[in-house]
Amino acid sequence: MTQENTISPRPRVLSGMRPTGRLHLGNYMGALYNWVQLQHQYECYFFIADYHALTTDYADTGNLKDNIREVILDFLAAGLDPALCTIFVQSKVPAHFELNDLLGMITPISWLERVPTYKDQQEQLKEKDLATFGFLGYPLLQSADILLYQASFVPVGQDQAAHVELTREVARRFNQLYPGDFHLSPNAAPWEMPAIEEKARKLAGDLHKTTFTPHELQQAALQTKKLSGFGRREILPEPQVLLTPSPKLPGTDGRKMSKSYGNTILLSDPEPEIRRKLKTMVTDPARVRREDPGNPSTRYSPRRRRSRRPAKAAPRQASAVSSVRAGSPTPSSRNSLQSRSAVATSKQILAKWTPFLPTAIRARQLVLLSLCIRSVPQ
Fold first, then answer.
1. Which residues are paired to 43 by β-bridges?
2. Residue 141 · residue 92 · CB < 8 Å
3. Residues 358 and 283 reside in one and the same domain
């Protein structure tokens, strides 16, 4: 570490990912892309959360080691640089579980039961037995992960902000029960500390006492007339939420893309596999069966794709746009225009995101992005 970093260290950021399988496009767009940017601005710690993988996949751990290796490879392929950030495996640091056990002694069960994702995942993963202590306590294990490294910021999306708030509550409760060293303001008068200690002796009923706990000094200071401020050092600092742009990419079944739901498109999927998965995706909620009529204004319809005109008709799109802006379009022209603009919008998003994809995964994802990026809410 350089002298400059020692004097003015960068704020610390921590985040992790469960090794439940190879990473998918939702992982990259929702987390990895942001991590690659953050490593240039903060002191970053990114870890493989293998303990967390056991909360839902405890019945089958045969592929856990291979999954850890695959996730690390995806980390490196996405652009994380070990020279700029620290990458590690959670289970290799025993202090994670040790701090988790200690925090469990002071954390009410009601705090864990009110975490929004607790009941949501139980509802979504009915095929798994999640009525376990480990699944109930996984938000507390997340808190231990964060507080162990005294992270200043935790990069999350809006749906994960509740987990960071739980961490703040746990840290606040810990600091109240086990405060750090008591201290007075640097501008305190010479007589203030002896006056506080004298008050502490009276409260303890021992006029010969010479050593005091931070609790005793705190209580005595509250009842002593003084001129300056006082306080206690916080052992566990409260982390802040670092909201990062994370598009909610839907999975092949319309729900949030997640390995737990089995609706993912992996970063390492070959092109034929990507096409096979995309063919099962619903493009129009009202068109459940192939024979049902489509609605181009809702989603890009495969039926429209079969009937679209050759490339030479492309210049008509600009004139159609001009005519619509000039007057009131008919329902048929409006649907046609919206269907064409959906394709144009997807091309614009493709042009925006493609340059940011690392070379290691860019080539194999061009087809995927061009076909499914229009599913990302604008």
1. 12
2. no
3. yes
Domain span at residue 205 reads 184-232
Q: In sequence order, what are the residues at sequence separation of 6 or more whose Cβ sits closer than 8 angstroms to the Cβ of residue 376?
A: 29, 247, 248, 249, 349
Examine the pLDDT at 58 and tell me if it is beyond 70: yes
Q: CA 124: distance to chain centroid? A: 19
Beta carbons of 334 and 324 less than 8 angstroms apart = yes
Within the chain, residue ranges assigned H as helices are: 3-7, 25-27, 33-38, 50-57, 64-78, 95-104, 109-113, 116-124, 133-136, 138-148, 161-177, 192-204, 214-222, 271-278, 302-307, 316-326, 331-353, 359-372
Same domain, 120 and 20: yes
- What φ, ψ does residue 297 adopt, rounded to 5°? -75, -15
- For 147, the token pair is 């507080």
Task: Give per-residue pLDDT as tens, 211-244.
Answer: 888 878 888 888 888 767 887 788 899 999 998 7
DSSP string covering 76-100 = HHHT--TTTEEEEEGGG-THHHHHH
Cα distances from 284 to residues 3, 14, 109, 262, 362, in angstroms, run 59, 39, 43, 21, 28
Question: Can you give the pTM of this predicted structure?
Answer: 0.67
Element (H, E) at 182: strand 182-184
Asked whether residue 256 is domain-assigned, the answer is no
Question: Sheet harboring 85-89: ordered strands across?
Answer: 85-89, 43-48, 12-17, 153-156, 240-243
Considering the domain architecture, whether residues 88 and 22 belong to the same structural domain is answered as yes
Cβ–Cβ < 8 Å for 235, 147: no
Q: Which of 378, 376, 375, 377 is nearest to 284 (CA)?
A: 375
State pLDDT tens for residues 156-186.
Answer: 877 788 889 999 999 999 998 888 888 888 8
Cβ atoms within 10 Å of 204's Cβ, excluding its own: 14
The contacts found for 131-136 with CB under 8 angstroms, 24 or more apart, are 132/55, 132/58, 134/54, 134/55, 134/58, 135/55, 135/56, 136/109, 136/112
Q: What is the pLDDT at residue 83?
A: 94
From 87, 179, 105, select the one nearest 144 (Cα to Cα).
105
Tally of domains in the chain? 3
Residue 252 forms part of a structural domain: no
